[in-house]
Design a protein that fits this description.
Blueprint (H helix, E strand, L loop, with lengths): L1 E3 L13 E4 L4 E4 L4 E5 L1 H9 L5 E2 L2 H8 L7 E2 H8 L9 H8 L7 H21 L3 H12 L5 H7 L9 H6 L26 H12 L7 H10 L25 H16 L10 H11 L2
Parallel strand pairs: 5-6
Antiparallel strand pairs: 1-4, 2-3, 3-4
Length: about 290
């Protein structure tokens, strides 16, 4: 059965017919607007003659026709070229929704939808014509992209072969992107404990050679290290209440344990003080 419909007006896609392959049959819409309901076998025979029809998701059409993938003008490829990185369902209805055209309800309407989608995409191409777009299209055309010639015509480009350097330049899209710095997020700190012997050794390094021997300061540093042991319960921190007299060297005592934990686990240790004067004292000790 065949029906004559209006012929598309855009020369870029007037030549190829549109093919919709259903589960039990196919619809063939000619360039003259004639709609035919044909069998899978007849559709396969027409494709075997070398005709490149408009399709939506060529691999599915080939699978339903039970033939090898065939050369075709797949509108999903053209959509991806015109609207890179934009989502579209790989169906005629998905194309219609993405391009804001009438949603098809029958196979015949789907074939007409392919024609309308092609016209819409070529209109968009003409509106965004830029040298870099044409350069990419020319590179793809040289590689055998079925849409290449029609896309170049839509962009107002001649068919003359460019110099090889300008052809390759079309694919150097990174040169046209703005510079940015994208640092990956830092991994969470580890959970290695601080042993008392490590705190004592760190305190010795912080004090340096020839420092005064302070057994109480050593004991204080070793005792504070318990705060950096693994937790006994989930979401409950470890507490250490430590007290020492004036002049013992408490600041360096807990800095020793804290710095060992920071080095072993590659994470920060926050120190809260009651006065700003103690903050300045901490800064002075950390600068040693």
């Amino acid at each position: 059965m065949s029906t004559l419909r209006s012929q598309p007006s855009n020369d870029f896609h007037a030549a190829p017919p549109a093919l919709i392959v259903g589960v039990r049959g196919a619809v063939w819409l000619s360039a003259e607007g004639e709609v035919e309901e044909i069998s899978h076998r007849l559709a396969a025979r027409r494709i075997a003659t070398g005709v490149r029809p408009l399709v939506c998701y060529g691999p599915l059409a080939a699978k339903r026709l039970k033939i090898e993938p065939f050369p075709a003008l797949d509108l999903l490829e053209l959509f991806a070229f015109v609207y890179p990185a934009r989502f579209c369902l790989p169906t005629p209805g998905g194309l219609a929704e993405a391009l804001d055209i009438s949603l098809p309800g029958t196979l015949e309407a789907e074939a007409e939808c392919l024609m309308a989608a092609a016209e819409c995409l070529f209109d968009r191409l003409a509106a965004i014509a830029k040298p870099d777009v044409a350069a990419v299209a020319r590179f793809m055309a040289q590689g055998g992209w079925p849409w290449g010639g029609m896309v170049l015509a839509a962009l107002g480009e001649s068919g003359e072969a460019p110099h090889s350097k300008s052809l390759i330049a079309g694919m150097r899209i990174w040169d046209r992107l703005p510079e940015w710095q994208d640092q990956p997020p830092k991994p969470p700190p580890g959970a290695f404990p601080v042993e008392p012997v490590e705190a004592r050794a760190q305190l010795v390094r912080l004090l340096g050679a020839g420092s005064e021997d302070r057994p109480q300061q050593m004991d204080y540093a070793a005792g504070v290290s318990a705060a950096f042991m693994p937790r006994d319960h989930v979401d409950q921190p470890r507490f250490v209440l430590a007290e020492a007299g004036t002049g013992v060297g408490k600041t360096l005592g807990y800095i020793a344990s804290a710095s060992v934990w920071a080095e072993k686990n590659e994470g920060p240790v926050w120190v809260s003080t009651f006065t700003r004067n103690l903050q300045r004292q901490l800064d002075a000790e950390l600068d040693r």
